[in-house]
Design goal:
Blueprint (H helix, E strand, L loop, with lengths): L1 H62 L1
Amino acid sequence: MYYYYSYYSYYYYYYYYYYYYYYYYYYYYYYYYYYFYFYYYYYYYYCYYYCYYYYYNYYYYYYY
């Protein structure tokens, strides 16, 4: 009975840590996915408005 209990506990902790690290890396992956996704659009719109402002001033000084 002790052998059966130890055997069962071994697989119980095995699957416990298996799913623990599985979900850990799962959320770790999606955390960095949305992190770089956020910074991608952040710098995209930053460059968009910055370049638009620069482009507008360029033609402003060009025409005037």
